[in-house]
Amino acid sequence: MSKTDLEQSLEYLQEKLVEYKGVWVESSRSHDTGVGHTFEEKILKKVEDNLADSDLASLEIKAHRINSSSKVTLFTKAPDYPSRANTYIRNNFGVNDEKYPSKVIHTSFFGNRINYYKGEYGFKLESNDNEQKLYLRIYDKNANMIETEIYWTYATLSDILSKKIHNIGFVEAKTKKKDGKEYFMYQKLTVLMKPSIKKFIENINNGTIQFDIRIGIYRTGKNQGKPHDHGSGFRISKNDFPKLFEIVKEI
User: Fold this and answer.
1) How far apart are CA 166 and CA 248, in angstroms?
2) What is the pLDDT of residues 65-108, one digit of tens each?
3) DSSP-assigned states of every residue in the chain
């Protein structure tokens, strides 16, 4: 019987982890994204592409530092409506940049509370199972709802879940610093399978999953002064990641 794509991907990952067992690998990128970028570039020999498809056949790779409580990005996706929703939010509910004549917005949206940004506007995620939509509600200073028609459809979110994080290869790494550089030793592999829109919405409602919008300004280069979307998307704590999946298996 021939092996499935998932079985081949897991076998390949296990081989790579054995090959690099006990080996410290110098980070190819600074800051939080270094652990994942280094694993893909130096261990998997994969060129970064920023595409929505999985990293390996049927398997999305997410590498993280052991004992890190930081948030991880599930996927990036602006609301379905209105068109160019992130720009609409920035223009109407952002704050003026200190240097450039443009607005910026860096804040988080939760399903269990209103989160106010710079004391001006409040943001909250609200699911509607009957309409099959996840709304982004916006409030004024007095907690009056002033924006009601920004949303993602459940169909859109379910489609992304099935494509982007249908199966996750969750790789953890030890970390150390030497001479100002960070190094990783990749070790534990956990496979997370079968996420569902039901679990996704449940974790939105209880505040476990948040939506971060991070639109700033290019400070240098040819785009200096223009808006820069740093990858607005849904995020979750690494420790809560298994809550999205029906199957959790340590390899």
Assistant:
1) 12
2) 887 778 888 999 999 999 999 999 999 999 998 888 889 999 99
3) -PPPHHHHHHHHHHHHHHHTTT--EE-SS-STTHHHHHIIIIIS-------SS-SBTTBEEEEEETT---EEEEEE---SBSTTHHHHHHHHH-EE-SSSSSEEEEEEE-SSS-EEETTTEEEEEEEETTTTEEEEEEE-TTS-EEE---EEEHHHHHHHHHHHSSEEEEEEEEEEEETTEEEEEEEEEEEEEEE-HHHHHHHHHTTSEEEEEEEEE--SSTTTTSEEE---EEEEEGGGGGGGEEEEEE-
- C-alpha–C-alpha distance, residues 169 and 56, integer Å: 9
pLDDT of residue 54: 53
Could you tell me the two tokens for 28? 């190819």
Separation of alpha carbons 220 and 109, rounded Å: 29
Say what angle helices 197-205 and 154-164 make with each other, to 10 degrees: 110
Q: 72-91: buried (b, 16+ CB within 10 Å) or exposed (e) per residue?
A: bebbbbbbbeeeebbbbbbe
Q: Angle at Cα 211 formed by Cα 101 and Cα 66, nearest 5°? A: 115
Residues in the chain: 251
Quick one: tokens of 206? 């209880």
> pLDDT at position 91, please?
93
Per-residue pLDDT of 134-189, as tens digits, reads 999 999 999 999 999 999 999 999 999 988 888 888 898 999 999 999 999 998 88
Closest CA to 190 of 244, 116, 135: 244
